[in-house]
Design goal:
Layout lengths: L7 H8 L4 E7 L2 E7 L2 H10 L12 E12 L2 E6 L2 E5 L5 H16 L3 E5 L1 E5 L2 E6 L6 H10 L3 E4 L2 E5 L5 E2 L5 E4 L14 E3 L4 E4 L1 H4 L9 E8 L12 E7 L4 H8 L4 E9 L2 E8 L5 H8 L7 E7 L11 E4 L2 H10 L9 H5 L4 H12 L3 E6 L3 H10 L1
Parallel strand pairs: 2-3, 8-15, 15-21
Antiparallel strand pairs: 1-2, 3-4, 4-5, 6-10, 7-8, 7-9, 10-11, 12-14, 13-14, 16-18, 16-19, 17-18, 20-21
Helix pairs in contact: 4-11, 8-10
Length: 383
């Protein structure tokens, strides 16, 4: 979806509707959120209660979330004076978050930011990363129930000056299939329609569980083996773009293992779905092709048919430091070639990889194929 070209006077008129305002600090960057909806500002206050900022110092990213109709009867998000129409007002929080953090990734140059859960034990951090639907949040909650400290289930922010991991205690997103779902008071939780999750603060479930910045001790990458799925099964790669890019899509489709399934327009964003041939490296290839297009990618995900068998016994094996470094670098969220992190490393991936290897060298690295929740958590307990 293209941000609409809107004159500054029109934008100012729209912004005046945003009478509810709050300031937050993410990765030491000031984000000001304003909206015309009391409910939306309360949702952000609850989800990011640990990030509320009480002064307006520092560089600032301004985001206006307007539920009332602004363009062709759409709701909208204004970010950096660009207007993004959102057709479904119930999706405003979801898309606002995506747009805010996508913009933040470009500004953050003092951290490596990974999509990962982080817990700590005796001051030592455990970083757990893996695809969606691999049970990362459920595993984090199980470990916290055993006395681990909670740092994050969404973002792992690694300070580059000392390699400490800082907490990112956003509210947890708990899916209906989670064993913790039934114990939650759902009337007091916000339901994320797009992600089919309810939002709850981890310390509301386990008071006093929020951890402090810590030195990471262990990196655990959740994986699955081919034995857990039929080789006839295919994987689906879902890609959403801010604006259409046929040249990019054609480059993806040039790979014989990748087939375009469909293209759609949803809430004014462009969505593509690709079928990936089974027992191939297509998933890795398509993710590599996305490198360099981060500024236009709203989200990307592999919809896996090879999810772990959560009724089986888990398995774990050591992972080489170099392979772990490549895996982490591939999943680095703030690696945009237009971003401050890339500039920090003089726009050289080799320098970034060298620093990543230096960080990973201090960790024990493992590939973990999850199984039953208790046994999987027992394995991590034993490390």
């Amino acid at each position: 979806m293209n941000a609409l070209n809107t004159d500054i006077n029109t934008l100012d008129d729209i912004k005046k509707k945003a009478i509810y305002k709050r300031d937050f600090s993410f990765f030491n960057y000031h984000v000001a959120i304003a909206t015309d909806s009391r409910k939306i500002i309360r949702v952000f206050e609850e989800m990011y209660s640990k990030f509320l900022k009480h002064d307006q110092s520092g560089n600032c990213l301004d985001c206006y979330i307007i539920k009332g109709p602004t363009h062709k009867k759409n709701s909208s998000v204004i970010l950096n004076n660009e207007l993004y129409p959102i057709a479904d007002p119930d999706s405003l929080v979801f898309y606002s978050e995506l747009l805010i953090f996508r913009a933040l990734y470009k500004y953050v140059g003092d951290y490596f930011i990974l999509h990962a859960g982080v817990i700590s034990r005796d001051g030592k951090g455990f970083i757990i990363t893996g695809p969606s639907s691999f049970g990362k949040t459920t595993l984090v909650m199980e470990l916290v129930s055993r006395g681990y400290k909670f740092l994050s289930d969404e973002y792992c922010s690694i300070r580059l000056n000392d390699y400490f991991v800082e907490p990112f205690p956003r509210s947890l997103g708990v899916k209906k299939g989670s064993p913790f779902y039934s114990a939650l008071d759902r009337k007091k939780c916000f339901y994320h329609k797009n992600e089919k999750k309810i939002s709850v603060g981890c310390d509301n479930i386990y008071p006093g569980c929020i951890g402090q910045p810590c030195k990471p001790y262990c990196l655990i990458i959740l994986k699955s083996s081919l034995k857990n799925r039929s080789l006839k099964d295919k994987q689906i790669f879902a890609l959403s773009l801010l604006k259409d890019d046929r040249e990019f899509v054609d480059k993806i489709c040039n790979n014989k293992s990748i087939q375009l399934l469909d293209k759609s327009l949803d809430d004014n964003f462009i969505f593509y779905r690709f079928s990936l041939a089974p027992d191939s490296s297509a998933a890795k290839t398509i993710q590599e092709l996305c490198v360099g297009h981060e500024d236009n990618i709203l989200s990307q995900s592999v919809i896996l048919d090879d999810r772990p068998d959560f009724n089986s016994s888990p398995t774990i094996k050591a992972m080489s430091k170099f392979d772990a470094s490549l895996e982490v670098l591939k999943n680095l969220l703030n690696r945009s070639q237009e971003g401050n992190l890339y500039n920090r490393f003089k726009k050289q991936n080799s320098l970034m990889l060298h620093t990543m290897v230096g960080f990973i060298n201090n960790l024990d690295c493992y590939e973990l194929e999850p199984g039953t929740l208790k046994e999987t958590a027992d394995i991590i307990d034993s490390l």
